[in-house]
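Lay summary. Proteins are chains of building blocks that fold into shapes, and those shapes determine what they do. In this project we predict the shape from the chain. Here is one chain we studied, written as its sequence of building blocks.
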Amino acid sequence: MNEVNLIESLGQVPASETGRVFRDFLRGQVREMICEVMASEVTELCGFKHAPSSSDHYRAGSASGRVLLEGEREDIDRPRMRHKTSSGTSKEVELANYKAAKDPQQLQAQNVQAIVSGVSSRAIEEIKPISPGVRASEFTAAQSVPVSGNLSQNRHPPTTTSAETKP
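And here is the predicted shape, written in a compact code that computers can read:
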């Protein structure tokens, strides 16, 4: 989706959907940027496509991979690259930009920032529902605990004595 399509799409959806359409557009742009940066790194190390190079690095096709976008895993096709060793063998080289884009520390930093900003750790599931490291079962279990209007009652539930329980 380019800028013209985005403007057309935003004009055709109800106001309640514009945020989702815009976020989807941004995700696509970030995804495209990650792919371009990885391709640039390959060109830097291997030289231009279809041009002879004296580099020890060479292109080795592509493979499926995952990166984190807004704390969610996103499938991408990542370029593969190999390095010729002095013994005549070769080994896979992980792109530095791909390694950074899939780093879960990025997600951890976002969650820490959300908590520092005042978001309850129980509410992280609402903010990043399909993020790695956030399990829906933990969130569901936390939400099933009954909560009364008085917070002090929730922190210190009343205790009953044996005298109170006898008829």
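What the prediction tells us: Confidence is low (pLDDT under 50) at residues 136-157.
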